[in-house]
UniProtKB/TrEMBL annotation:
Domain called Xylose isomerase-like TIM barrel: residue spans: 27-254
Keywords in alphabetical order: Carbohydrate metabolism, Isomerase
Listed name of the protein: Sugar phosphate isomerase/epimerase
Gene3D superfamilies given in the database record: Divalent-metal-dependent TIM barrel enzymes
Domain of life, per lineage: Bacteria
InterPro entries, A to Z: IolE/XylAMocC-like, Xyl_isomerase-like_sf, Xyl_isomerase-like_TIM-brl
Pfam families: AP_endonuc_2
Organism of provenance: Microbacterium galbinum
Amino acid sequence: MIGLGTYAYFWQHSDRAPDQLGLIGAFEDTKAHGVDLFQICDFAPLDTMSDAEVRDAARAARDLGLTIELGTKGIVPEHLTRYLRLAEVFDARLVRGMLYGPDSRPTLAEAETSLRSSMRAFERAGVSLALETYEQIATADLIGVIDRVGSPRLGICLDPANVVARLEHPQTCTERTARLVKNVHVKDFAFARQDDWVGFTYSGTAMGSGLHDYAHLLETVRPRERGINEIVEHWLPWQGDAATTIRTEREWTRITLELLRSTP
């Protein structure tokens, strides 16, 4: 299933937006795009919302017919327990995770211990935890942790864009993780020369105009055959003013959805 996530609304959610979009507003906009899946990923207000506010958001999602996924950073067992409870409220079947959190950088052995203590509860709840590929952890090390924990509910959130900063090739990351993928983050990326040709900027670009060989990912991972959701997000730099940035963000969403829908 194709979905949108909070990173597709990064600037619309920010305090730079003249009409800052809340979570329910993002749900409504997602539905207006004809999309039935939304991933609430690294959305800071979710961690401070009251129980009543969380229930209201979950009710709004259900009323709109949206399937919800969650996303957070860190694998401290108490933190994962909180997100498992949130998953129950939202009827979410997947939580995207990252080994490192704001205040925790476990060793691989510590990460394995933390995950072992948490995954039984995820298994009982029927919720998957998908750890994202990113530059702070070598893909081979992330795979090793997942394999050693050995839970059928533990896998990979594949984002090949992130690993470039570790000098890993996106296609290699895709091929190595394919068997473990439970979630895909969809965005394009490119290098651009800095002014006066002094270095490069690595950033997002409109889907289909950058370096991401998404056809290779589809062929290798086969997400649609395997029931793996594809979540649209963007790496959109600030465009100089709010109106231009938000207009571009919305245009990138439109372009990405059109491309995904037209790709078998």
